[in-house]
Amino acid sequence: MAAPTDTFLTYSALGRREDLSPVIYNYDPIETPGIASFGRTRAKAVLHEWQNQALAAASRSNAVLEGDDATTDAATATTRLSNTCQIMDKVARVSGTQRAVDTAGREDELEYQTLLKTLELRRDMEGNIFGHVAEVTGDSTTARKFGTLGTWLTSNLSEASDATSSTGGGDNARTDGTVRGLTEAMVKEVLRECFNNGGQPDCILVGSFNKQVISGFGGNAQRVKTAEDRKLMAAIDLYDSDFGELQIIPDRFVRPILGGSDTTGDLWVLQKDSIEVAYLRSVGIEPLAKTGDSDRRQVLAELTLQVNSQKANGAVFDLSIS
């Protein structure tokens, strides 16, 4: 049936206002559980340094004669460690015209773009921390880089047999081996080694695929819920190991990084209070000089990774991701 003759329809009308929602929907993830979990400290130089202290090995022969003179025991010196501060930034640039026109969902385009760049920088920081990039001291033509977490851990690792481990200290990167499927035995091995080396890990950070693998571990074989709840417990969010409970945290910015091209995955077994992010310059926003009919703002941070005890942490590397 056609519309009545001479009925003025919207298809012919001019001057209609557009119907554009004033809300901008952004579903890209912004959670960075690693940075949120680690401590924060202050760096005071481009080369940030700290010290570790080890104790003498426990002795089963510590017995002395009654009334004997005290014998001095050898002192154990501290170990001095360091990591280079890395500058990271994001720059927003908006034309004068775009700032002047009426926009939907935001009052000032530059303010809005600056906010987005701040969120993007935090994601970059998370991805960098959980990388396998060796420290770069830098020069006038080479940007400085901090040694990422993968270059510090040497003691408590489960790796493929053909992988090459880092030598530790932040200045040497490991190489990946043949990918293999994650098993509960791998995780238990790392937890046992962490305990033997004095660590008390309290969380596991892992990508989405291997988070689901963990949820199938035999330790979660009994999933009990009352019939009234009508729920099936299909996930492990807290792993009760022989050496304490660990929170299982999915992280989109450990390998495989969301949207990246990684072909292998990592699982990090961490004692959160043994890792800190040291800021020479905290995240800040600086307006840049005008060079024409546009405005720019730089979101910048200068930071490094401080691993207070690599022996307290561990990892399972070379994991399949599909």
What's the gyration radius in Å? 27 Å
Continuous helix count: 5
Number of strands: 12
Query: Structural class, judged by helices and strands?
Result: alpha/beta
Approximate strand percentage: 25-35%
User: In angstroms, what separates the terminal alpha carbons?
Assistant: 54 Å
How would you spell out the order of helices and strands? HEEEEHHEHEHEEEEEE
Major sheet strand order = 5-12-9-6-8-7
The helical percent reads 10-25%
Query: What are the segments in which pLDDT stays under 50 over at least 5 consecutive residues?
Result: 221-225
Largest beta-sheet characterization: 6 strands, mixed
Characterization of this structure:
The protein has 5 helices and 12 strands. It is elongated. About 2% of the residues have low confidence. The chain has 322 residues and is α/β, with parallel strands linked by helices. A hairpin with a 2-residue loop joins strand 7 and strand 8. Helix content is 16%, strand content 26%.
